[in-house]
C-alpha cells in the first residue's frame, strides 16, 4: 500500500493510466481508465469529518433533495440473519446517487449487540464506492463513523426543519445512550442547539453513566439528569431522541406526549403505533420505512393504510408539506444508502485533496481483456 502523491479531483476518483483497450479499439473518443483503489481508515474518516457538522448537514440535506427529485437509486436493504445468532444481523445497502456526487456503492454494516458487554461497539461497517463510468470500486472506507455521522446529521437536520414552527427546544431527552446518541448530541450541539436540561434514560446503568461522562466532558453545558423512569424523561423534554436497540415497542402511553414534543425516532421500533396515530409522522422514504416491523410499519398494519403519514423530510425541505406546531411530531428515518455514499464520497475527496489516499497498487490486476 502506498500513499498517493497526487490529489484527486473533487467529484471523480483519481484516474491512473489504466487500461482502455476496448474503447481504443472501438474508436470511441473518451478513454476509459480504471481508477486506483484506496483504503481509507477510521482515523482518516474521523479527521475528515470532525468539527464539520454544519457542512455535513448541508450535504445530507442536498442528498435528500436529490433523492426526492429522483436522481438516485436506493433499493431495499438486504438483511442477512443467522438462525444460530438471532440477535445479530448484517445489512447490505446498495445505492447510487447523481448530482455532483455521481457515485454508486454499497454499505455493508453488521450489528452484533452482544459486543457491547465486552465494551466493543455493536455496529461495524465498510463502504465501497464504485466509479460512475467504469463500475470499478475505487475506495473501501471504514464506515461505522460515516454511518453514525450521516444518521446524526439527518437527525439534526430534522430537529431544525421539523421544529421551525415551534420554540427552539431547551430540554432534550435521550432514550438509549450508545454511539448513535453520542453522535446525535454532537451534531445537535455542532449545529447551534443549546440545551438547558439534558435527560437520559437507558436500561443499562453503565451506558447511562458513560453517556453522562461524555456529556460532562463535551463542554456543551446543561443540567444532566439520569431518569429511572421513561415517563419522566418523556414528560420533561421538548425534544426526544430514541436511539435504543429495542426490537418491539416499549413506550405505549399516549398521555405522556400531551405536551406535543418533537421526537427523533432514530431506532424506529420504540413507539407503540397508537402514539404514531396521535402524531404527525414524517419519514425519510415511505417504502423503506414501512418495512421490517418498524413502528410506522405496525401503524400501517393497525390501520390498513398510510394516512397516518404526513410526508417525507424532503416534502418539508421543499415546502410541499407544513409541519404542525400543536401536535407531537415524530421523525422515523429508515436510513438511506444514498446518505452513506454522499458522506463517503466527501471523505474520499477530502483525503485525496490532502494527498493522503492509501492506494493499493495493482489491486485490480487483470486489466487487459486480451492479455
Ligand atoms: N435510522 C437510522 O438511520 C439508524 C442508523 C444507525 C443506527 N440506527 C439505530 O440506532 C440504534 C442505536 O445504535 P447504537 O449503535 O447507539 O447502539 P448501542 O447498542 O451502542 O446503544 C443502544 C443503547 O440502547 C439501550 N437500550 C436498549 N433498550 C432500551 C430501552 N428499552 N430503553 C432505553 N434504553 C435502551 C442499550 O442499553 C444501549 O445502551 C440502533 O437501534 C440502530 O439500529 C438507526
Could you give a quick summary of the protein structure above?
33% of the residues lie in helices and 22% in strands. The protein is built from twelve helices and 17 strands. Nicotinamide-adenine-dinucleotide is lined by residues 113, 116, 122-123, 147, 151, 175-181, 201-204, 207, 243-246, 250, 266-268, 333-335.
How are the SSEs ordered, and which strands pair?
Blueprint (H helix, E strand, L loop, with lengths): L1 E2 L17 H6 L11 E3 L1 H8 L3 H16 L3 E2 L4 E4 L7 E9 L5 E9 L11 E9 L5 E6 L1 H19 L8 E5 L3 H12 L6 E5 L3 H14 L4 E4 L3 H6 L3 E4 L19 E4 L7 H5 L2 E4 L2 H4 L5 H9 L5 E4 H5 L11 E4 L4 H17 L4 E2 L12
Parallel strand pairs: 2-8, 9-10, 9-12, 10-11, 12-13, 13-16, 14-15, 14-16
Antiparallel strand pairs: 1-17, 2-17, 3-5, 4-5, 5-6, 6-7, 7-8
The structure holds nicotinamide-adenine-dinucleotide.
Pfam family, one: OCD_Mu_crystall
Protein name: 2,3-diaminopropionate biosynthesis protein SbnB
